[in-house]
Write a structure and sequence with these properties.
Elements lengths: L10 H5 L5 H8 L9 H8 L6 E6 L7 E4 L2 E5 L5 E7 L5 E5 L8 E3 L3 E4 L6 E5 L2 E3 L4 E5 L5 E5 L10 E4 L7 H8 L6 E5 L4 E5 L7 E4 L1
Parallel strand pairs: 1-8, 12-15
Antiparallel strand pairs: 1-4, 2-3, 2-5, 5-7, 6-9, 10-11, 10-13, 13-14
Length: 211
């Protein structure tokens, strides 16, 4: 991630993000005029008074809640982009997606990233979202948050559920898997249409998590 002071010369590129009034107002709020000119866009964007901010990119995923710390502030537009305003300059700001609003087929390395914008400027935060293979399992955490994984075993190998779990620095669930999880722990998970409980190391349906 490269940090830099916002340059008004970048406004023409920013203006290409928006093809209609709905996309513009999802991104910037109801005060934005559409259609716009370079002058009206700059005025409505309050470039000369702008706070530190983050341009968030969740490619291909529209209408997903995006928040600062624990508060949802905005939603992604039709192309998966959102502006998160009012960040603290030169400090770590936690930018978080609402996992309950991502489709079951979406896989993320993380739903939380850190932005450190300069004063009165912004940074881009690109979430590494990729399409899953379709056969997914969603682990449900104690507070109801969810983490999606693809099955690692072949379709014909249905004697057990096998997952590949890659440790993500700062990841809540993957940190728990690598540091605390033991055979015999109970894990709650959801398939597409129902939820089940399993016991790690049980006799009926063993769950094998491989790093």
């Amino acid at each position: 991630m490269k940090f830099g002071r916002f340059d008004p010369a970048q406004l023409p590129e920013l203006m290409t993000w928006f093809s209609d009034a709905r996309e513009l107002r999802i991104w910037g709020g109801p005060e934005f005029r559409f259609p716009f000119t370079a002058a009206s866009f700059r005025e409505d964007a309050k470039v000369d008074l702008i706070d530190s901010f983050a341009l968030v990119d969740v490619p291909g995923y529209a209408n997903v809640g995006v928040g600062f710390q624990s508060t949802v502030l905005t939603r992604t537009d039709a192309r998966g982009r959102a502006l998160v305003p009012r960040l603290m300059p030169y400090r770590k700001n936690s930018i978080r997606l609402d996992p309950s609003e991502l489709p079951i087929s979406a896989e993320l390395d993380t739903i939380e990233m850190t932005a450190v914008p300069p004063a009165r400027s912004g940074v881009k935060v690109a979430f590494p979202v990729r399409s899953g293979r379709g056969a997914l399992i969603t682990i449900v955490l104690d507070d109801g948050q969810r983490r999606a994984f693809s099955f690692a075993n072949a379709p014909h190998d249905d004697a057990r559920i096998e997952l590949h779990v890659r440790r993500i620095p700062g990841g809540r669930f993957t940190g728990h898997v690598f540091e605390q999880m033991r055979a015999g722990d109970t894990v709650r998970f959801e398939a597409v249409s129902h939820a089940e409980f399993i016991n790690l190391g049980g006799d009926d349906t063993p769950l094998e998590a491989l790093a």
